[in-house]
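Lab notebook, design round three. We kept the backbone fixed and only want residue identities now. Task for the bench partner: fill in a sequence for the structure below.
Input structure tokens:
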């Protein structure tokens, strides 16, 4: 855990020192950024910095987030594509994705030995990007999602990859993730609500079938321990210790109690 904490702090501090960004002054970038903030109704002050520390547009910072933009982006993207980029990154801001990543990073440090947590953390970042893709398409109101998918592909063609840092939300990740995201983008307009309702209903039915078992009305843990001794006709005795969940005999046999049902006032209880 100590090693994971040190590594996390070191990587993020080293990245902060590498930023050294200056405020963006290009009118085209500033206009596209202002339009994106207006579409998402964001009034918060988010600095737009030109930084060589990233090769892909990235949102960085938990307390005072800033949007890092590589200066070469104007060579590859037109105004419409810049709009795609800025809206995607600002959706990360509205969804508090950086906060979620830091919280899950804490869980990952506590469970560093569990490979399932590492895989879940990797899938979380991927699913955050897919969710932002869907939200971006809703805000863009595009008729053909291939326009937005082409922006992602163009990022990959220009090898605009982002460093894997907890406090960084970038538009593009690995190429395997890009393939999945493009496939998801293609299916967004044709996704039917009936399938969503079917999945929700199936989960509800499975939950009711597997998580409910309220037949026992009296807990066996509330029953006090009692010792019973029986003397038979030939003079030998048998005893059984009644524990909260079982009978233990001095002869070695055990009778387990699975259910206790009250028989009514003054009539005791029935055991199963």
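Proposed sequence:
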């Amino acid at each position: 855990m100590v090693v994971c904490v040190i590594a996390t702090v070191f990587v993020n501090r080293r990245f902060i020192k590498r930023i050294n960004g200056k405020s963006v002054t290009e009118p085209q970038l500033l206009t596209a950024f202002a339009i994106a903030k207006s579409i998402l109704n964001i009034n918060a002050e988010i600095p737009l910095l030109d930084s060589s520390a990233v090769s892909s547009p990235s949102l960085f910072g938990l307390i005072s987030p800033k949007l890092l933009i590589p200066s070469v982006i104007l060579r590859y993207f037109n105004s419409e594509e810049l709009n795609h980029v800025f809206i995607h990154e600002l959706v990360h801001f509205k969804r508090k994705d950086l906060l979620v990543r830091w919280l899950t990073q804490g869980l990952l440090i506590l469970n560093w030995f569990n490979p399932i947590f590492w895989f879940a953390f990797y899938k979380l970042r991927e699913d955050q990007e897919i969710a932002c893709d869907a939200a971006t398409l809703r805000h863009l109101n595009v008729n053909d999602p291939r326009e937005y998918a082409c922006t992602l592909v163009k990022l990959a063609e220009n090898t605009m990859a982002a460093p894997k840092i907890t406090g960084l939300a970038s538009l593009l990740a690995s190429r395997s993730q890009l393939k999945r995201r493009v496939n998801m983008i293609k299916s967004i307009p044709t996704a039917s609500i009936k399938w969503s309702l079917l999945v929700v209903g199936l989960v509800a039915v499975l939950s009711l079938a597997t998580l409910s078992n309220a037949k026992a009305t009296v807990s066996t843990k509330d029953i006090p321990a009692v010792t019973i001794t029986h003397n038979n006709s030939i003079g030998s005795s048998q005893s059984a210790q009644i524990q909260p969940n079982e009978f233990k005999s001095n002869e070695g046999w055990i009778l387990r109690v699975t259910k206790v049902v009250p028989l009514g006032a003054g009539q005791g209880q029935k055991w199963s």
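Keep this in mind before ordering anything: The chain is about 50% helix and 15% strand.
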